[in-house]
Amino acid sequence: MKGIDLREHRVLAVAFDKFEALSSAFPDVLEQSQENDVRAAMESLDGLHKKYQSLFHELQKCIEEYEHKKKTVRATINKANRKLACEPVKRTAV
Fold it and tell me: 53-68: per-residue pLDDT in tens?
């Protein structure tokens, strides 16, 4: 599974901040539709990044819970196996 590179997202955010600063300093250079496209694209990208962060956090919690349950189940199985292994074998009369 490939994750989202947080550093790369920050670089895009910085580039967008620069875009906003330049577009407000030189408002007549870009057409309004171009400016709106850039803003909408960045808003969508930020939304996806926030969704990714939320899902990634959920996944980490799930992994931690799984690891805890795995240790509990392993300990329970091992304890039961040790108990079973120590039981004398009961033989039935043939």
Answer: 999 999 999 999 999 9
